[in-house]
Amino acid sequence: MNNFINTLNELDQEMILFLNGLGSPFWDGFWQFITNKWTAVPLYALLCWLCYKKHSLKQFLAILLCIAVMIALTDQLSNLFKIQFHRLRPCHNPLINGRLRFTHCGGQFGYFSAHAANTFALACFLGNIFKHFYPKMLLWLLLWASIVSYSRIYLGVHYPLDVLTGLSIGILFGYGMYIFYKRIIIKKIK
Questions:
Q1: 113: exposed, middle or buried (C-beta count within 10 Å: 0-12, 13-18, 19+)?
Q2: What is the pLDDT of residues 93-146, one digit of tens each?
Q3: Which residue, 93, 99, 80, 85, is CA-closest to 158?
Q4: What is the value of pTM for the model shown?
């Protein structure tokens, strides 16, 4: 088992060095902008407005509550994993941090990416909420979540496996919350 984990870590290190090395100073500012949590505020405002426009007030408030709970859960689970696994972020890993082209470092530990988990959870939940009104919304939101998640790799903040784990957990929580909303909450507020 240790050999498998070591091989996985080495592969993850090679992947981050490759992907981070593809960057250029021309794109650095763009990816810093994308990774900033405040950059998405206009998108969140638009999504809120669309929710309000397409749903009753009770449904709108229930959707906001579901989003708050879902983001709190994915965020806290990410924090729990970071404390439990103690996996250094690439930018803090002395074996590779000197070989990274560009870094924008966060806390010491990084497994798994809360950015990826939160954005994919939100994309999956709202994409399904809106699928009857805007059939391509899920696709656009998943694209947005993918771009935000890639920014974490580009900036040397997370390994690809950190992002893939966050993506998986985000989709699980997002779809799970959508099912909960459709099967339980919507029936109680009608």
A1: buried
A2: 888 888 888 777 878 888 889 999 999 999 999 999 999 999 999 999 999 999
A3: 93
A4: 0.92
Contact 120, 177 (CB under 8 A): no
| DSSP states along 78-98 | HHHHHHHH-PBPGGG-TTTGG
With helix as H, strand as E and coil as C, how does 24-62 read? CHHHHHHHHHHHCHHHHHHHHHHHHHHHHHHCCHHHHHH
Q: Which residues, at least 6 apart from 67, have a Cβ–Cβ distance to it below 8 Å?
A: 122, 125, 126
- What does the alpha-carbon distance between residue 46 and residue 51 come to, in Å, rounded to a whole number? 9
Do residues 145 and 98 touch, judged by C-beta distance below 8 A? no
Of 167, 177, 176, 124, residue with least CA distance to 147: 167
Could you tell me which residues come within 8 angstroms of residue 141 by beta carbon, excluding any fewer than 6 positions away? 122, 123, 124, 126, 127
Nearest Cα to Cα of residue 146 among 130, 166, 128, 126: 166
